[in-house]
Model the fold of this input.
Amino acid sequence: MQNVACIRRYVVNPEFEPSLVKNASKACEGICKWVRALDIYDRVIKIVAPKKLKLAEAEAELAVQMKKLNQKRAELKTVRNDELCDDDNNRFRQ
Done:
């Protein structure tokens, strides 16, 4: 974000510490804390956002693979049921 980049020059200033700003104004101390938190949030979101995208892609792929798995399970169940029916028919014939 361009706006967040503008505040970074203040955040890196060693005098822009809430404890130091507090001496000038209580209101400015709160603003200082907010600006520093905004800077931290910006740095963190830049790390987390790509991971969220990868997670969404992985979950979509998982959904596709689970659908395939469930189809194969249904086919297997059908085959097993057919085998059981064949076994039962053979027993009755004997």
